[in-house]
Amino acid sequence: MNLPLVVDIAIGIIFIYLTLSLLSSEIHELITTLLQWRAEHLRNSIRVLLEGGGKEKFDPTLKERNDQVQVLTDRLYSHPLIRSLNQEAKGNLAQLNRQASDAIIGGLYRVVSLVFNFVNRLVGNPKATLTNPFTNHTSAPSHIPPETFASTILKTFQMSEIGRIVTVSRLEKFQERQVSALLKKEQYLREPESRRLATERLRQMTRDWNKTRQEFANGGITLAATIDRMENSLNGYIGYCEQFIREPETIKNFFLYELKYAKDRYYNPTEKPRILETLRPTLNELIDLVQNKPKIYQQLEAAFRDKSSPTYQGFKAVIDRIPDLPEPLQNSLRALTEKMDTRKASLEEEIQDLQTQLETWFDQSMARASGVYRRNARGIAILIGFLIAIATNADTFFMVDSLSQNTLLRETISDYAQTEVARTQNLDEVKRNVRNQLDDVSLPLGWNESIRRQQIPPEESVQIPGLNRQIGNPLLYLKRLLGWLISGIAISMGASFWYDLLRKVVDVKNTGDKR
Fold first, then answer.
1. 220 pLDDT higher than 50
2. pLDDT (tens digit, 9 = 90+) per residue, 402-455?
3. In which element (H, E) is residue 82 found?
4. Per the CB 3.0–4.6 Å rule, which of 173, 194, 257, 495 could disulfide with 21?
5. pTM above the 0.85 mark?
6. Nearest to 398 by CA among 24, 9, 28
7. What single-letter DSSP state applies at residue 30?
8. Cβ of 419: how many Cβ atoms within 10 Å?
9. Cα separation of 383 and 380, whole Å?
10. Whole-number Å distance between alpha carbons of 256 and 262
11. Concatenated DSSP letters for 99-131?
12. 80: enclosing H helix or E strand
């Protein structure tokens, strides 16, 4: 067998594999779309991520954690940031198509679920079931950007709002300490009128502080601006006392000295940064609060005296909507916060850093999940390839024999493949051309009588011992089965692989012809 003959046979085999791979890829894509495999795999991967990546078989809290993770996953998928990723066409025709596809998906899942559950009962595992993960939303995103996932986690657990609740509560206590200290200073005043003026001005300052704290609670100003306003109000109180309090000079000077001393205790340049840090919670404190909602309610009760205020009611509604934080996710968030070097100037900056850590964590997890999906998809591709090989009777051994013995068939396929490669540079164009012109090329495929007789000739039948009956040679059946298996594996390698290989082999032949 000379080299040109081997090259022509190789071109023919590769072209047949390419043709069948194109069919396989379309079937695989159709099944993937109908059954939402990518979206389902993404959802399962997110569940594994939220579960901490592993389970202990005899964990008594396993069911509770699974329920928490399920609720959290549903909440994440119902969040506008993720729900908006699932773009669906509008209009009557689009809705009709979507309803039809939803019915097909639901029907396929019901059929597959019956088979799956039946097999599980046979093997003694009746609890394992297979259900459509998108019963209420049969369409779901097959890709979620890391920044979207991280933002959804932080917004679902309302980290910024909880941090503000805690800070408002601490501001309330911070204010009470100062007011209490200032009231004690008024005991140094001797004149009743001086005490009345100081007390009245202190009440006014307290009202100003309450308005400032309320503005911070509403998100109107930052914590640093809040502290600056409180300091300015205290400076105004001291200035008022200095101008309007009428006391003997010694008493007045001592009173003013005590006021300034009380102010410097909280607002001097060295102490103010420390006060800011103690007023805002750490990320770990926020994580603990999210995990223990009663503590958040305690902080809320301490922060607001007026329980009928819109701000109080708004914060209460926020807390009510927070889902349970599964322990594995809590541990993961703690581990991510430990990677952050130092505290930032504000809680918002720290939450932004946490979001960056969440993005990296999600991205790395999805990279591993993509590897799992590719392995699963590879297994499905092999199965589809094997079924196509059986359906088309694509026996590699028979195809090689046919191409090596039938010169006209070999040259026809080889010439068509070379022409297609020469005029087409795009795999999509090859797909269209092959689909449109496949009837013009006779391939050694199919279940017609001629091909079956060539694969298993009747004259090679064997006698069954003890029976007056003949069957085809079992070795030939085994050979055909092996040929199907080889074809199935080859088909699963994909059309791109065979198209690139075909171009290289054609280039080799053309180079040889020039010589």
1. yes
2. 889 888 888 888 888 888 777 766 677 776 666 655 555 678 888 988 888 888
3. helix 80-83
4. 495
5. no
6. 9
7. H
8. 12
9. 5
10. 10
11. HHHHHHHHHHHHHHHHHHHHHHHHTT-TT----
12. helix 80-83
